[in-house]
Amino acid sequence: MPLTQFDLKNAKPAETAYKLSDGGGLHLLVKPNGARLWRMKYRFLGKEQLLSFGAYPLFSLAEARAKRDEAKKLIASGVDPSVKKKGDRLDAQRAAANTFGLIAGEFVANLEANGAATPTLNKNKWLLEEVAAPLASRPIADITPAELLDLLKRIERSGRRETARRLRATISAVFRLAIVTLRATTDPTSALKGALLRPQVQHRAAITDEKKLGGLLRSLDEFDGWPTLRAAMLFTALSCARPGEVRGARRAEFDFEKTIWRIPEERTKMRRPHDVPLSRQSVAVLKEIWPMSDYGDLVFPSIRSSKKMLSENAMNSALRRLGYTQDEMTSHGFRSTASTILNERGIRPDVIEAVLGHQSENVVRRAYNRATYWPERVALMQEWADMLDEFRALDPPDTRLAVNAIAT
After folding, report:
1. Edge-to-edge, what's the strand order for the sheet holding 26-30?
2. What's the start-to-end Cα distance of the chain, in Å?
3. Catalytic annotation, residues
4. Could you give the residue range(s) of every CATH 1.10.150.130 domain in the chain?
5. Which residue has the higher pLDDT, 214 or 372?
6. What is the three-state SS of the chain?
7. Which of 146, 226, 238, 298 is buried deepest, with most CB atoms within 10 A?
């Protein structure tokens, strides 16, 4: 006879365990300690088996009967419900172990194995380990578009629109890895297309007037702050290199006999080595500062340690102390300054692009880019250094720049 609610409520423990049958193999096992457990006895391939459905009243009589009926359907279709239950539990355990953080780590490891540049690795690590930290312990298969949108919108509302868009793309790459390794079935970021605001493009400020540039150079010459910082800014202006490449410059990269600075591929934005011809003025700046790094490998070490680079914002901070706002000049602006003035003077654009280390869109040309236009680049770097000397003499110093006297 089927069980009733009255039977269940009055099922009291006894000295030994006993069963209350509901039919179809389903019964309630009442144990001496008071536990009341749903069980189902069935036969599969001639063998008697026992299936557990949980405890009463956590699972009601109706829920236990529904589980019994599901098990009977599986048996009828040739599936052992006990085996399926164990398989489902193992799948759930594996899914819980496959967290976003785990697969994100594999994604970064793949980038490194494929030779990604150090800046690229650091950027992806920062995005996945710090910005996307709320996702780290989440099973990747459980992450929803709504969850991602909430995270990205919070970043967006903080004013970091570009970071939000980059994070969405990077998260998508992690999900694609999870899909091809059978740990996820969909990429939830695909549902977020158009959901984020466009970044507000801000061009790096740069001085392109030759007289004003001369004023800045005179101010740098008189800068009485940390010597390596002054040298780094002058060398950035002379070499047309990226500020990050200058800050990370190593002594072993310089060949004074051949007057070449060889930047290895792991330190360049374009993931390929880049050679910079050294003008006489560049060599003079380097030799003046060279003794400062006798106890370390960095050419432009930090004031705090010879083993640490100048901070990312050190040059920009110095420009502010010299009286230049962020809307007037930035450390990266030295490259734009050189590009604009050289183009205005009619220098071949291809040579300028090679000097700046920009990536060629032509695959064949890209393979030989390290030495492309080398004689022209050598001549141009010396010509550019001579131009900077000429600019220094165009006008008397801007009195506003006397503020450098208070620099650290």
Report:
1. 18-23, 26-30, 36-44, 47-55
2. 92
3. 242, 269, 332, 335, 358, 368
4. 100-192
5. 214
6. CCCCHHHHHCCCCCCCCEEEEEECCEEEEECCCCCEEEEEEEEECCEEEEEEEEECCCCCHHHHHHHHHHHHHHHHCCCCHHHHHHHHHHHHHHHHHCEHHHHHHHHHHHHHHCCCCHHHHHHHHHHHHHHCHHHCCCEHHHCCHHHHHHHHHHHHHCCCHHHHHHHHHHHHHHHHHHHHCCCCCCCHHHHHCCCCCCCCCCCCCCCCCHHHHHHHHHHHHHCCCCHHHHHHHHHHHHHCCCHHHHHCCEHHHEECCCCEEEECHHHCCCCCCEEEECCHHHHHHHHHHHHHHCCCCECCECCCCCCCECCCCHHHHHHHHCCCCCCCCCCCHHHHHHHHHHHHCCCCHHHHHHHHCCCCCCHHHHHCHHHCCHHHHHHHHHHHHHHHHHHHCCCCCCHHHHHHHHCC
7. 238
With contact defined as beta carbons under 8 Å apart, do 235 and 334 qualify? no
pTM over 0.85: no
Q: Tens of pLDDT along 101-148?
A: 999 999 999 999 998 877 788 889 989 998 999 999 899 989 999 999
* Topology (CATH) of 210-406: hpI Integrase; Chain A (1.10.443)
Residues spanned by CATH 1.10.443.10 within the chain?
A: 210-406
Supply the angle between the helices 280-289 and 227-239 in degrees, to the nearest 10: 160
**What architecture (CATH level 2) is domain 100-192?**
Orthogonal Bundle (1.10)
Q: Where in the chain is the domain with CATH 3.30.160.390?
A: 5-90
Instruction: Yes or no: say if 98 and 183 are a contact pair by the CB < 8 Å rule.
Output: yes
Q: Say which residues have a Cβ less than 8 Å from residue 173's Cβ, sequence separation at least 6.
A: 107
CA distance 175 to 189: 9
Residue 408: the pLDDT is 33
CATH architecture for the domain at 5-90: 2-Layer Sandwich (3.30)
How many C-beta neighbours within 10 Å does residue 299 have? 26
- Per-residue pLDDT of 326-372, as tens digits, reads 888 988 888 889 989 998 888 888 888 888 887 544 444 444 455 67
